[in-house]
Amino acid sequence: MNIYVSNLSFAVKDEDLREFFAEYGEVSSAKVITDKMTNRSRGFAFVEMPDDNAAQKAIQGLDGAVVDGRSIKVNIARPKEKNNNNRSFSSNRW
């Protein structure tokens, strides 16, 4: 199961996330998302856990937990929406 974690402190690293979630079961991956230009954390992450039951327990156990002084939000990750580039523009704008 893919898990979305938000409101993270900028100090939280991939290894930290892995440790938090490992208490609930096996963690396949843990990735803090960083800004491509500055390489600084964007304050959210994704964690992948192969066991759905363990993932649900991690979500329940960690949602609202205080990590590095911040109350984190933990949810099931939603699939990325496709970008719809078929916008119509009014000819008056150009």
Give a verbal description of the structure:
The chain has one domain: 2-Layer Sandwich (Alpha-Beta Plaits). The protein has 2 helices and 6 strands, in the order E-H-E-E-H-E-E-E. It has helices at about 15-20, 50-60; strands at about 1-5, 30-35, 40-50, 65, 70, 75. The strands form 2 sheets. A 4-stranded antiparallel sheet has the order 2-3-1-6, with helices on one face. The longest helix is centred in the middle third of the chain and has 11 residues, at about 50-60. The radius of gyration is 17 Å and the shape is globular.
SSE arrangement:
Elements (H helix, E strand, L loop, with lengths): L1 E5 L7 H9 L6 E6 L6 E8 L3 H11 L3 E2 L2 E2 L1 E4 L18
Antiparallel strand pairs: 1-3, 1-6, 2-3, 4-5
- How many domains? The number is 1
Tell me the CATH superfamily. RRM (RNA recognition motif) domain
The major β-sheet equals: 4 strands, antiparallel
Query: Which stretches are low in confidence, meaning pLDDT under 50 for 5 or more residues running?
Result: 88-94
What is the global morphology?
globular
What is the chain-wise order of helices and strands?
EHEEHEEE
